[in-house]
Every structure is written in C-alpha cells, then in structure tokens.
Amino acid sequence: MKYKSVVITKKGSPEVLKIIENDLRQPKSREARIKILATGVGRTDIVMRYGYYPFAPKIPFAPGYEIIGVVDAIGEGVSRVDVGDRVAALTVYGGYAEYVFLNEEHLVKVPTTLDPAEAVSLILNYVTAYQMLHRFAKVKSGDKVLLTGASGGVGTALLQLGELGNLTMYGTASLNKHDVLVEHGAIPIDYKSQNFLDVIHKAEPHGLDFVVDGIGGNYIRRGFAALRRGGKLVAYGNSGFIGLLLDLVKLQFFNWLPNGKSGEFYGITALYRKDKQPIIEDLQVLFKLLEEGKLKPIISMKFSILEAAKANELLESGKINGKIVLLAPELL
C-alpha cells in the first residue's frame, strides 16, 4: 500500500515542492502511524525550503511543522495512545503527507469536538505566543506591550492571548490589516507610514513593559528603545541561521547595557528538544481554551495537503492574515 507526501526536492521557490509516493509500512516499537487530518503552513517551512533552517534534515524531505491526525496503527510497547485516538504533535518536519510515523512521547490527545484546522493552528503559533507571554515575559493584567508583525500567524495568536490577559497592546501591521488588531483591542501602527517609536514615545512616555518582536534586525534596537527601565524584549522568528545569529548578538549587546532592560530569544524547536513537557502542558491548556470558545484561530485559507506548493506560494506573497492550513481531502 502507498501514501503520498509533498517533499522539498532542492532549495528554491515553491515549485521545488513535489508529490511523491511512499510505502505505507507498519509502525516500529513505541511508534504510532498517524493519518494526517491537518497540518499548518508557516514561515519556517519557507526558511527550510530555501535551506536556511538549522534543524531541517537533508533534502529531500517533507516540511510541515505541526499535525493533527488519527492514530491508524501502533507498534509494540505503545501505551499512551490507541488506534482511533485523535492526536496532535509538534513534528518540525514531515507534516506535508497523508501519513506520518511518530514516537508516542510526541503525541498529545486532542478533544474530538475540536475542528482539526483550528486545533492545528494552536500547536506552533499559539504555543509560541503563550510561552512568550506567560513563561518568558510573565505578563500580568494591565501590562503595556508592543507586538511587531502583529497580523501574522503568531501575531494574531498574541493578540487573542493578550486580549484574554487584559494587556494594553500596540501592534505593527500594514494598513489593510489594521482591522484584525482593532478587533482584539490593540492600537494599530502602520509600519509603512509611521515610526512606531514616535507613536510609543508619545502614547507611553515612560516606556513599555514588554516588546514581542517577530521581525528582527533593526527592530530589535528600536524595540529596546521603546521599553521602560526594567522592561523586556522577547524576539522570535528569523530569516535563517545567519539572521538568528545576528539577532542573538544584538540581544546580547543590549543586555550588557546598564539600563535595566533585558532581551531573550524564543525558539520553540530548541526548547522542545531540551524539554518537551512545558510545551505539551501549554498545548493542553490551549486546547481547553479553544474548547471553551475563548480562542478563535484566524484561518485565512485551506488547501488539500497535496496542494502544499500553492499554499507556500500564497504565504510567501505576504497577502494573508492568520494561518494557512492543509487538510485531508475529505475535510475540505
């Protein structure tokens, strides 16, 4: 029996993504075979495709950072899940496929009442947002926060979680995306026509408590300038290995300055490899919030899993808000 996946065949634009067939084998010891229902399309997939992601395997491989699926078969010794269970996993790669094989330690059970497209949106974007706010920044009600890149997948997750946490939020986005920010109580700043430092200094002369920066580069320096003494900047996302190194150097430099301000870089893959338990715990909290109707992931487009190249092209165009999701054909 065969199954299909979409793999990166060489470095480059979305056209390098090709559909291939694979043998559908039996799962190994402590491994589950999962029929994928949904997987997300994210910026990391693009970085992998161009060959800049340090945690990517050798080409060819299937991207796909997160999955929701149904356990189709289990190997010897598997005890945490059973056939028929709906599960989630932070895969980092492998999600652009009809099936995936994962060790049971990576699997988190998912309430069957949840929509797979919405549930898969939580695994990377919302866990990243939740951990930056609550484990890194440790925000509290009333804190003043700037979110750069506020209209993207992680940005909209930050907006929703910030609204739940009663934060005073400012967010940078292009003018045509400001309605998303306003909807969640944030004050929008048009990064094309406004200098966010001028806006912040006028509105908050004593500075902000936190900056959550998803852009990097010069935004890190400007983000530190927007902070009050004792404030903190949390950076995430980067344009690849070199971009990450440069951002880390900038953060270290600003941490050395005697102004009481601090900065930290958030990288979910490195954290997951070090200790996956906090991420699993926070994902379970987020599933509960979704089940209670307190979160509503913004899904811009849905494609079939085998239409991953088209979805990558749309994401790379920058013309969307929220999340692009790939689904099993029967869910479309």
Structure description:
The protein is of the alpha/beta class and 332 residues long. The chain folds into 2 domains: 2-121 and 298-331, Medium-chain alcohol dehydrogenases, catalytic domain (Quinone Oxidoreductase, Chain A, domain 1, Alpha-Beta Complex), CATH 3.90.180; 141-266, NAD(P)-binding Rossmann-like Domain (Rossmann fold, 3-Layer(aba) Sandwich). The protein contains 10 helices and 15 strands. The strands form 3 sheets. Strands 3, 4, 5, 6, 7, 14 and 15 form a 7-stranded mixed β-sheet that branches. The chain has a 6-stranded parallel β-sheet with strand order 10-9-8-11-12-13, with helices on both faces. It has a two-stranded antiparallel ribbon with strand order 1-2. The mean pLDDT is 93.
Specify the number of helices.
10
Assigned CATH class of the largest domain? Alpha Beta
> In the residues, how many domains can be counted?
2
> Helix proportion of residues, in percent?
25-40%
Order of helices and strands: EEEHEEEEHEHEHEHEHEHEHHEHE
Which short descriptors sum up this protein?
6-stranded parallel sheet; 2 domains; alpha/beta; 7-stranded mixed sheet; Rossmann fold; Quinone Oxidoreductase, Chain A, domain 1
Brief account:
With 332 residues, the protein is α/β, with parallel strands linked by helices. Helices cover 33% and strands 28% of the residues. Strands 3, 4, 5, 6, 7, 14 and 15 form a seven-stranded mixed beta sheet that branches. A six-stranded parallel beta sheet has the order 10-9-8-11-12-13, with helices on both faces.
